[in-house]
Specification:
The protein has helices at residues 2-6, 14-27, 37-51, 55-58, 78-81, 95-105, 108-120, 134-145, 153-169, 186-198, 219-229, 237-255, 269-278, 286-296, 317-347, 359-371, 378-399, 405-417, 428-452, 457-476, 486-496, 499-506, 516-519, 522-549, 555-559, 566-589, 600-617, 643-654; strands spanning 264-265, 302-304, 308-309, 627-630, 633-636. It has 660 residues and is mainly α.
C-alpha cells in the first residue's frame, strides 16, 4: 500500500474512485471479496486524504477534486458543486464525474455533454473530453521538434490562433480544454506560452507559474516550464529565476533517478529531460534538435488518467516514420550539395593551413545544414558555406606572422578599390586570397541578386570591406605598445568575428524580400550588434589562454588589467552573454517596431547562426561518444578546435541515416 502511494504512475484519484466502485458493486449485490485487507487499507487511505480536503475551497473554486466526483459523491454538496460546472456541461471534462453528477442531480447539461461525447466518439466514452488545448499544443510541439513543421504551416498557424484566443481570454493561463473559466495547470500553460512566443504572439509570462504550482510540480510540468523559461526576455525576471529553479529541480530528479511523471508512462521522457539539460535551447542548432528528438520521440506513450489511454494525435508511428524519411531525404540532398562544394573547394586557388583539407569546409557546411536544413534552401547553404570558409581564409591571412603588415595593408587597399592591379607586387598568398575572395563574392552576388530581383552587390561589398578593415586594425594591434579600451576593442573585434559579414548576405537567400531599408534599419542594426557581442564574448572566453601565449589582445586580458581575476571576468561575461541572448530572442520573436523589420525567416537565421556558433564553443555536445561531467550528469564531451572530435557528431547529422 505504501508503495502504491509513492508510485507516480498510479491512475488519478484511484484511492477515491476505487472504494466508491466497491460500494456501488456491493449495492448491486455483486459477489466480490469486500473484506480483503487491501480494500480496508484503501478505505483508510481515502479517509486520510478526505481529512485534508478543504470542502469550503472545493465548493468555491475549480480543483482537481472535480475530476473524481464519483469518489467523493457522499460528502460534496451537489447544489453548490453545480456552480463549478464547465460551459460544456462537464465537470473538469471528466466523463465519469459528469455521469455521477447527472445521476445525483439530473442536471440536463450533464446529459447533453455525455450525449455529445458518445456522438463524437463512436459511442465510446473517453476518460477526459475534450482536450482541445492540450492535444494541439503537444502535437505542434512534436511536429516542430521532429523537423516536420514546414509541412503543416497553415494547420499549425490555425492551432496557434485558436490557442492564443483562449490564452488571452483566460488572462495568460490555460488547461487542457478551451472553455471560459476552465481549470488551468502549469504544463499546459507553459507549453502554450512557449509555442505562442516562438510563433511571434504577444504573451505575458506573469501567470505561467500560479499559486500552488511550485508545491504540485511533477516531471513533465517542470520540463515544460523549463523550456518556456528558455524563451524569456530580459525584463521577465520570473522566467529568468524560473529557469534556474526548474534546472535545479530537474537536476535533483536526475541525481535521485526520479524521472517518471504522474500523468504519462514514457520510455524516452527521462532521456528527453537529460538532453534538454545538456543542450540549452540557445546553444543547439535546429537540425541537432530534430535528430535528438527522433531518438527521444515516443510512439507508444501511455497517458494516465482514471484509466490508461493513448493520444494518437500526439504519439504515433506515422509522425516518426515521416520524420525519419524526411531527415534521410534532406540528408541525401545535403550530401549531394556537399560533394559539389568539396569539388569547388579543391579548385580554390588559395588555401590556408586550416583549409588544407576538406574538414573545415565540411564543418562550415554542417553549420549551414544545421541552421538551414530545408531542401529548398540549397543556395542559402552553399552561400553560407562558401562565406564561412572565406572568413577562415581571411582570419588566417591576417593572423599570419609570415605576412607583413604592409602586405595586409595592400590587401585592404585593393579591397577598398576593388582593383586587382593594386595587388601587384604583393606576395603570392595575398594575391591568391584576393582572387579567391572576389570570386566567391561575385558568385554569391549573382545568385543573391537573382533571388532578390535587384542588385545587392553594394551591400555585399560594404559588409566584407568592413570585415577586412577590422582585420587590418587587429593586425596593427599586435604592437605591444598599443593599449586598448574595451570599447575600442569591441568596436572592431565585434565585426572581425565575421558573423555580420556572413549573416548580412545569407539573409538574401531565404526566400523573402529584403529591402535596402530593412538591411539598414535600426532593428537590423540591433540584431547585428547583439549577434556580434554575444559571439565575440563567447569566443574570447574560450580562447583567451591561447591568445595570451600569442600576445594577442582579448576581452579577457583587457578586462583583467585593473586587477580583476580571470574567474571574475569570465563570470561577468557569462552573465552578459545570457542577458544579450535574451535581448536577441526578443528582437527575433517580438520586434518592438514594424518599420524596417526583417522578415521572420531572416530574423530566425540570425538567431540560429548565433546558436550554431555557441554550440561550437560548448564543452558539452550531444552527439559525441566521450563523456564528461556537468552538474553531476554524464554528458557527451567535445574539445574546441579538435576537428577529429567534431567529425564524430558531424557524421551523425550529415552522413549517418536514421534507421527505420
Amino acid at each position: 500500500m505504501d508503495q502504491m502511494e509513492d508510485d507516480p504512475e498510479r491512475t488519478c484519484g484511484f484511492e477515491l474512485a476505487f472504494t466508491a466502485l466497491i460500494d456501488d458493486a456491493k449495492q448491486l449485490d455483486l459477489d466480490l471479496p469486500y473484506h480483503l485487507e487491501f480494500i480496508e487499507q484503501m478505505r483508510a487511505t481515502k479517509a486520510k486524504k478526505l481529512q485534508k480536503l478543504p470542502l469550503d475551497v472545493v465548493h468555491k473554486i475549480k480543483t482537481t477534486v472535480l475530476y473524481s466526483l464519483e469518489g467523493v459523491q457522499d460528502i460534496v454538496d451537489w447544489e453548490q458543486i453545480q456552480n463549478l460546472q464547465s460551459e460544456n456541461g462537464s465537470f473538469l471534462e471528466s466523463v465519469a464525474s459528469t455521469a455521477c453528477a447527472y445521476l445525483r442531480t439530473g442536471n440536463k447539461r450533464c446529459l447533453e455533454f455525455l450525449t455529445a461525447v458518445l456522438a463524437k466518439n463512436n459511442d465510446t466514452a473517453l476518460t477526459i473530453y475534450p482536450v482541445d488545448i492540450f492535444e494541439p499544443c503537444w502535437m505542434v510541439d512534436r511536429l516542430q521538434r521532429l523537423g516536420l513543421a514546414r509541412y503543416f504551416e497553415s494547420e499549425i498557424d490555425a492551432c496557434m490562433q485558436f490557442v492564443y484566443k483562449q490564452f488571452s481570454q483566460e488572462n495568460g493561463r490555460v488547461g487542457w480544454v478551451a472553455a471560459k473559466g476552465a481549470y488551468t495547470d502549469m504544463d499546459d500553460t507553459a507549453m502554450a506560452f512557449r509555442l505562442l512566443r516562438l510563433h511571434g504572439f504577444d504573451v505575458n509570462s506573469s501567470k505561467i507559474l500560479s499559486s500552488g504550482d511550485e508545491e504540485n510540480c511533477r516531471l513533465q510540468a517542470e520540463q515544460c516550464f523549463f523550456r518556456a523559461c528558455e524563451t524569456g526576455f530580459p525584463e521577465e525576471a520570473d522566467l529568468i529565476e524560473g529557469l534556474a529553479w526548474t534546472r535545479k529541480l530537474l537536476l535533483d530528479r536526475f541525481k535521485k533517478n526520479d524521472l517518471r511523471d504522474k500523468y504519462v508512462i514514457s520510455k524516452t521522457l527521462a532521456s528527453e529531460v537529460v538532453t534538454a539539460l545538456a543542450n540549452p535551447w540557445s546553444q543547439t542548432m535546429p537540425r541537432m534538435e530534430h535528430r535528438a528528438y527522433i531518438d527521444n520521440y515516443g510512439t507508444d506513450d501511455v497517458w494516465i488518467g482514471k484509466v490508461l489511454y493513448r493520444l494518437p494525435k500526439i504519439n504515433n508511428t506515422t509522425f516518426l516514420k515521416l520524420a525519419k524519411a524526411d531527415f534521410n531525404m534532406c540528408q541525401k540532398k545535403h550530401q549531394e550539395e556537399l560533394k559539389g562544394l568539396l569539388r569547388w573547394n579543391r579548385e580554390l586557388v588559395f588555401k590556408s593551413e586550416r583549409c588544407a583539407d576538406d574538414k573545415t569546409l565540411i564543418i562550415c557546411f554542417f553549420a549551414g545544414a544545421g541552421c538551414l536544413p530545408a531542401p529548398q534552401l540549397s543556395l542559402a547553404r552553399r552561400a553560407f558555406t562558401q562565406l564561412c570558409l572565406l572568413t577562415v581564409l581571411l582570419d588566417d591571412f591576417f593572423d599570419s606572422t609570415e605576412e607583413s603588415l604592409a602586405a595586409k595593408a595592400q590587401f585592404f587597399a585593393a579591397c577598398r578599390s576593388r582593383d586587382p592591379k593594386l595587388m601587384d607586387g604583393a606576395g603570392s598568398n595575398a594575391q591568391l586570397l584576393f582572387e579567391s575572395m572576389y570570386g566567391i563574392l561575385s558568385d554569391v552576388i549573382v545568385d543573391g541578386s537573382f533571388l532578390q530581383g535587384r542588385d545587392i552587390s553594394q551591400a555585399v561589398y560594404d559588409a566584407w570591406f568592413r570585415l577586412v578593415e577590422c582585420h587590418l586594425k587587429q593586425a596593427e594591434w599586435k604592437d605591444p605598445n598599443i593599449q586598448l579600451s574595451l570599447e575600442e576593442y569591441l568596436e572592431v573585434a565585434g565585426v572581425s568575428i565575421s558573423m555580420e559579414a556572413v549573416a548580412s548576405v545569407v539573409q538574401y537567400f531565404l526566400g523573402e524580400n529584403i529591402t535596402e531599408e530593412m538591411s539598414q534599419s535600426p532593428h537590423t542594426k540591433r540584431l547585428t550588434k547583439l549577434m556580434n557581442t554575444i559571439t565575440r564574448h563567447t569566443n574570447d572566453m574560450a580562447t583567451f589562454q591561447k591568445e595570451k601565449l600569442e600576445n594577442t589582445q582579448n576581452l579577457v586580458s583587457i578586462s583583467t588589467r585593473d586587477g580583476a581575476t580571470h574567474s571574475q571576468v569570465l563570470e561577468s561575461f557569462r552573465k552578459l552573454v545570457d542577458d544579450q541572448m535574451r535581448r536577441l530572442v526578443k528582437e527575433v520573436l517580438c520586434p518592438s517596431e514594424t518599420d524596417g523589420v526583417l522578415p521572420k525567416a531572416a530574423r530566425q537565421f540570425y538567431f540560429d547562426f548565433v546558436r550554431a556558433t555557441l554550440y561550437s564553443y560548448s564543452a558539452d555536445l550531444l552527439l559525441t561518444s566521450e563523456v564528461s561531467e556537468r552538474d553531476g550528469i554524464a554528458l557527451p564531451a567535445f574539445e574546441l578546435h579538435d576537428l577529429a572530435r567534431k567529425m564524430q557528431f558531424v557524421n551523425r547529422i550529415l552522413f549517418e541515416p536514421v534507421l527505420y
